[in-house]
Known about the structure:
Elements: E1 3-7, H1 18-26, E2 29-32, E3 49-52, E4 55-56, E5 59-60, H2 64-76, E6 81-85, H3 95-104, E7 109-112, H4 117-124, E8 138-142, H5 156-161, E9 165-169, H6 175-184, E10 192-197, E11 205-210, H7 214-221, E12 227-231, H8 238-241, E13 254-257, H9 261-273, E14 277-280, E15 284-288, E16 301-304, H10 307-319, E17 331-334, H11 337-344, H12 360-366, E18 374-380, H13 386-393, E19 397-408, H14 413-420, E20 424-427, H15 430-440, E21 449-452, H16 455-463, E22 470-471, H17 477-490
Helix pairs in contact: 2-3, 10-11, 12-13, 15-16
Amino acid sequence: MTVYLVGAGPGDPGLLTARALELIAAADVIVYDRLIPASALDGARADATLVYAGKEGGGESMPQAEISRLLVAHGSLGATVVRLKGGDPFVFGRGGEEASALREAGVAFEVVPGVTAGVAGPAYAGIPVTHRDAASAVAFVTGHEDPDKPSSALDWEALARFPGTLVFYMGVRQLRSIAASLVACGRDAAEPAAVVERGTLPGQRVVAGSLGTIADEAAAGGVRAPAVVVVGEVVRLRERLDWFGVVRPLGGLTVAVTRARAQASALADRLRRLGAAVVEAPAIRIVPLDGPAMSISGYDLICLTSPNGVRILFERLLAAGGDARVLAGARVAAIGPGTASALRSHGVVADVVPPERFVAEGLVEALAGVPVSRALVARAAEARDVLVEALRARGAAVDVVALYETVAEPLSEAQVAAVCSSDYVTFTSSSTVRFLLQSLGDGARLGGRLVSIGPVTSAALREHGLEPDVEAARHDIDGLVEALLADAVSGE
């Protein structure tokens, strides 16, 4: 098999390449760094081995020699291995060292480039590293050389003379020394300079000044790594070209997303585009239940109550050699637009979708005029019986198939702390309420405003002594986002 040295980009999950996502989904083993997008591992297989090999606070959690040894060991055993690195693996990412170790051991490898922070961070700050009128060249420089080197490999005089933009990676701690060395070698102290902290992320900050003042400006602003330093005339363009820093509705707010990992990314992406810093804290996990391959026949109504139910139903149908055609002849009802969308992805257009109130009661109302004699309800094991009882009360024979169960997903201490300090905590089901509070324990308290997707979820909050601050009028993800936005705007 092959070891893939994969660049995960600078932090914004949207900058992960299609090839990176494809390899993450296929990997047997993923060895990953600290500075990768928060959701980068969401697509990993449940049985994949995940190995953390990041760096924290300037010290290595795992020595580079050990990382290379791990890659060689797993690659030699025939596993598909992804070495997931922040930015680009060959731009100050030590990917070259790892590739050399693999080549020496006779292990096949491929390199998947990623978007590098030295281009993306400035771009998100409105600073193009090259510009026809301001800079025809750009130099990428490490601000943190190997401490074991006997002397610096950087030619400061050449860098001072360089006719273009200078971009320093990992240069925050050495910023004063970098600026002083450039000025001492002849670079103009009045030349514009900027530091981009946490580039491409919602918490991105930009501190600007001149080469002579930037160290003081950064110190006064409390700038910390990860950050890139940009020196050059292109920095002047920021005032005109800044786009990411434009005030967005949820800018400056932290929102916790508690739904299952597989479904969290769409909501998290929506919130990030609105400017929020998102805490992904999946409190639940969807576990398919063992069951026979399904063959559907004889029903005049088939009810689906969640996208998860749709996915697992079709997995069962495919296992029996069937597909969407087996639903022909029956009316298909979906509890809401999310479930209807999941059906469309399998080539099925729902006949019945409640116009509002995307809960069991709403589906009962939508089915009031639909004739039914035999119905199938495919759902979660712990679902309420409102729909089943209503159909039976009408004289219908109803079969219930439990396709999956919702179980607790343990949260780390860091996730618990982040959720408790969030400005908003979103709940998309009663199970997210129950299992999040279970993970928090008795000592933890939610400090932010509680956002509920609808009345059933709100009732679950109240059962635990919590009053929702916001309840969506439309009981789906669109409605939840709309309600959160309205609350955030009204609170300004």
